[in-house]
Structure formats: C-alpha cells, structure tokens
Amino acid sequence: MIGGLSKSSSRLALAVAAGLFTGGVLAMPSAKAADLGGDCCADLEERVAELESTTARKGNRKMSLTVTGQVHRSVIWYDDGHSSTTYYGLDNTNASSRFIFSGNARVTPKVRMGFEIMIEIEAGGTSSKVSQFDEDGKVGAQIGGPASFNAHNVDAYFGDARRAAFYMEHDDLGRLTVGRWDAAGVLATIDLTGHLFLGASSSFILLNGGFFIRGGGGEYYATTWGNIGDPASASSGRTELVRYDSPVWHGFIFGSFIAESGDYYGAQIRYANEFQGFRLAGAIGYERVRDISTPNVVSPGDVAFTGARPDINVWGIALSAMHVPTGLFVQGHYNAADYGDRTTGAVSGYWGESVLRKKDTAHWLIQAGISKNWFGYGSTSVYGEYGVATDWGAANGAGRNYTTAGFTAVNGVTDTEMRIWGLGIAQNFDAAATAVYVGYRHMEADITCTGAGPVGSCAGAAGAPPTKLNTEGIDVIVMGARVLF
Questions:
Q1: Helix, strand, coil percent values for the chain (each to nearest 5)
Q2: In the beta sheet, which residues pair with residue 425?
Q3: What are phi and psi of 461, to 5 degrees?
Q4: Alpha-carbon separation of residue 315 from 125, 264, 334, 364 (angstroms)
Q5: What is the extent of the structural domain holding 373?
Q6: Residue 41 shares a structural domain with residue 133
Q7: What is the pLDDT of residues 47-85, one digit of tens each?
Q8: What's the CATH number where 95 sits?
Q9: pLDDT in tens, 1-12
Q10: Does residue 13 share a domain with residue 134?
Q11: Same structural domain for residues 42 and 105?
C-alpha cells in the first residue's frame, strides 16, 4: 500500500515532465519555456527520490501487507467494601491495545499462503494487574526494567507477541497454521454483538483480577480475585503449535491442534449460521495436557522436571443466539477441567494449575440483552449477565495455602466459588470505527478452608471442621473506548 504511493509519485513526476515537454511547451511562448530553467524537472525528481528513500515499504510485491489494530483505554472505579478509588487511562485487558501485520498471496486459484504477527501491550497500567496498592499494575522482572512507572515520563512496556505464525490454505482442504496461535480446543462465550466484551469479557478476572479480597473487618487476605477465578480467559490459550481448520461445511468448521512436543493437543467443532431471522453460533471443544513444566535451569537431576506428568482434561461448550429483526440475544458457555490427583512432579501452569492436587473446576456465564442501531450511528447493545467460577482456588486433601507478608494468611482452602453479576451498555460509532461503553460488575466469593491461621483467617487447629471465610464483595465500573484502525 505504501509502496504503491511511491510508485504513484514516480508516475506523477513522469507525467509532469511529459506535460512540460509536450502540451505544456506547445501551449506557451518559447520565451516562457526558456524562463523555466533546465533543471526544474531534475528538482522534482530529486524530491520524489527523497520521499521514496524515507518511506516505509513492504519487502516485496508478491505478498500483500496490511496493518491493522486497536487502541483500547479505560477508566476504572472500584469499591471493595472498605476502600474505593478511580484509576484513569488503563489499558483494558478484556481487549488489549495491539497492532497487527498480516498478508497473503495466491499460489494457485485455490491455494494461498499468508502470515500474521500480532503485538499487544503487556505491561504496567492494565486492568488485570492493578490492585488496591498498585495503580501502575507493574510487571517488574518480566521486562527486566523499572518495577514502577511512578517516575515522570517512564514509558510502559509494549511488545508482547500474542500471535506470530504462517499458514497455507486450500479452498477445498482447509488451512494449516504453524507458529504461535490460538489453540483449537475449548472456547468460552461467543459474542454476537462484537463489542460486549469491551466492558464484560467471558473471563471474570481480566478486569480486576489483581485486587485483594477483603475480610469483614477490613483485613486484606493473602489472595486475590484472580486466584479464585478462571485462568485469564477460561478458554484455549495461545501457544506454539500446528493447527488445522477445515473448510466451512453447512456452517460447521472442524479444528484441531498439537503443541509443545506433542504433549498438548485438542479439537473443536464450531458452528455459525443465520436463517429465518436468527443468527446462531456455537462450539464444543476438548483439550488434554501432558506437558511437564520446564524449570529455569534444566538438569537431569531435577526430580520435578523428570517426574510425574500432568494429566489435565478440559471440555467446554458455548452457544449464542440472536433474533436479528428485534436484536434480542442470549449467549453463554460452560467449561470444566479435570486435573487428576498428582502428588509429585511440577505444577504445569496449564488451565491455572498452580498447585498439585488441584481440585477439579468449572466455569459458566450467561449474558442476555438487545443490540440494535437505534440512533443511526451504529449498533447499541444493552446487556445483563450472571456467572459462577467454582474451585479455581482450591486443592484436594489438606487444601491450598495463601501466604503473603503483611496480609492475613488463608490456609487449607478446600472450596472456592466466585459469583458475578453485571450490566452495561456499548455504543458503536461506525463512521469513526470506534465503540464506547460503560459496564458494571459485582463479585462475591465463598472460600472454605480448614487450616490454622491468624485471626480473621480460617481459625482453629489443622484438621478442624471446615470454616467459611468472612469475605466482602467488590463492585467495579469500567468505562472507555476502543478505536480500530
């Protein structure tokens, strides 16, 4: 696209030159022509050459290049039952700011090859990292730089490779993708409105997962809402893989993938169609993880690295429907994960496995509302939602311990449940490729534990009957805008 501009500039220079030496000269007296000077066109060509040398161009004319992306920023207010404040200008992890380089080229009438590189922000000042004590949401050692962004003009880190892959596609046989990409496994809610997840994603923790849970007496427990919620997106993660997607057959697409050294794989069936005024979308998927977590320093003597493999099995279903004439819609998902019952080896990190003997988990969400273009600017969506995440923060046996210096310990957690409900509105402005929104979510938690701990935690001796922790809910309002380019 930019290369075409340079080519057009060259043609313009030639056309000007041709006009001066043909029609232009014939239409003017010879004295006027002499007054132009012999180096007028040379100056023009020199300027065009200068512009060409300073203009970014794609490397070849065979593979197309498109640059797209989005800027998404928000203002977030919270009230945790004992304190409240507002954070301004955060990047919203529900749909992070990013830019995308993509392209493709036809090899034959039915075969094409292409690529995509997606770079997103993954740094301080994001909605999933801030807490009551840290409005910067710093990442510290992750970027090897300053651990805080308090200093004037200290720039945030921008450069996380969300996707980087190439693909080969045949119209009749499907697409093969190789590189870092989304796994073709379990999916969460499919948003038919296209902008509902700016203020209310299918995950419960991307908006305020870094906030600490408060007790009835105002104490800060040594656990966050992210600890007891779904792992980031409650759906397939991104990893280095080989993925296959079939052509569309009556609205159905089959997908499968294999990743790591073959120890992570899965499959899914997706569906999307529209008939008799109804728009439908759905998916069912399965994933299995047998990949051992790799330590920072690999050694044959590392028992955890060479020990028992994880055996995580996850399945999920999603279904969305919209009545197009009225704009009424309902959508949701259910996911469940089985972690087995390992007592040795290393924690894998997949699907939130952060402790051995992690309890099996479930996560579901339902949303409903109406989406129509009432005002002529673009679609307006009004929605309500309710969801539950079960046992993401618990472990079998003696339970899971949460201990952080300065916070009230929570020991022996055997059951957790996070419940959310919310509502909001999103407005598209099609002429500016922009959506603005405001969303509200209320979260509350039930945490059952048996271990000994300080006052306000699970009091009593180890092995005592289970005790339900006294917790406060949290209210969050997020408002902002996403600008597409």
A1: 15, 45, 40
A2: 382, 438
A3: -75, 155
A4: 33, 14, 9, 12
A5: 58-484
A6: no
A7: 777 776 666 677 788 999 999 999 999 999 999 999 999
A8: 2.40.160.10
A9: 434 434 444 443
A10: no
A11: no
